[in-house]
Amino acid sequence: MKLDRLLAIVIMLVNRRMIQAKELADHFEVSVRTIYRDIDVINQAGIPVISYQGAGGGIGLSDGYRLDRNVLTNNELVAIVTALQSVSTTHGSSSNKQLLEKMQSIVPAAESEQFQFQTQQFIVDMSPWGRQGPMEEKLAQLKTAVEKGFEITFTYCNAQGEVTKRSVEPHTLVLKKQSWYLYAFCLERQQFRLFKLFRMKDIEDQKRSFVRKNVSVEQIPWNEEWSSPEKTTTLRLRFHQRAKHIAEEWFGIEALNIEASGENSEKEARYIVSVHYPEDRWLYGFILSFGQDVEVLEPEHIRGKIKEIAASIQQMYK
């Protein structure tokens, strides 16, 4: 849109002392003549654009010109930029980068150094170690489907290892505990479901529009769905002292209660944790990931299931 281009040109001119018309034309994929027409429109709107002639010349704004930023305080701007930087670690789209540039452009030059310092005090890097690769492509594909309101189909493998073909109406992309999910209305189940992107493959855009359902994502409905009593099991786990720090990382220091026993020394102390999780294959693998440093006390059937899996692992390595 022309209006978007005009605003973007102003932002670029605010952030740079001077820029050549050819560079602007290449950036926005238009002709140099179109850029000069845009500059005339910007001048007519009261924004002082100046053309500098000769070698090394170009287009710039009058010294001291800044966009009006009275609606936001410095702390509010810092919070916005910090949030944008965090989102960009997992989804570095060009629109995010442009928005960051817009935010930074409305900071007065005299406050720029302090602003940079404040926005670097708190960094949330939600990207995985190493390269993300195919996940970025999947995110871009799903983001487009959400924006355009198109149905998609994909093959999905759930936590129990069951593989199904799904047709859904994608509503929201969710980043939760360093994993991406798609919150979508499943046409087969006729209800909203949360799909983990790592378990999705063969995603196809059906080019078939749908009307978005009236769902309030601000209330984080997937949390209620996941933690509903009928879907979760209460576990009592006993952790060895050597795994205390790992248990604290997962469940929090407050969740650990030292086991009352006169038999164990401080070095051999045990800690009891009560947690609520849906019971599935992921849960069994999660418990087994602690190895010999955890023991399931309750419920009895999960204790038996872990014993059964551990025995089969032992048999495999004989």
Compile the SSE list and pairings.
Blueprint: H1 2-15, H2 21-28, H3 32-44, E1 49-52, E2 58-61, H4 74-88, H5 94-105, H6 112-119, H7 134-148, E3 150-157, E4 163-176, E5 179-186, E6 191-196, E7 200-209, H8 221-226, E8 232-240, H9 244-251, E9 257-258, E10 270-278, H10 281-288, E11 294-298, H11 300-316
Antiparallel strand pairs: 1-2, 3-4, 3-7, 4-5, 5-6, 8-10, 8-11, 9-10
Helix pairs in contact: 1-3, 1-5, 2-3, 4-5
Characterise the protein shown here.
The protein is of the alpha+beta class and 318 residues long. The protein has four domains: 2-61, Orthogonal Bundle (Arc Repressor Mutant, subunit A), CATH 1.10.10; 74-119, no CATH class; 134-226, SH3 type barrels; 229-316, no CATH class. It has eleven helices and eleven strands. The longest helix has 17 residues, at 300-316. The mean pLDDT is 81.
Keywords:
318 residues, alpha+beta, Arc Repressor Mutant, subunit A, SH3 type barrels, 11 helices
What would a concise description of this structure say?
By secondary structure, this protein is α+β, with helices and mostly antiparallel strands. It is built from 11 helices and 11 strands. It has 4 domains: 60 residues, Arc Repressor Mutant, subunit A (Orthogonal Bundle), CATH 1.10.10.10; 46 residues, no CATH class; 93 residues, SH3 type barrels (Roll), CATH 2.30.30; 88 residues, no CATH class.
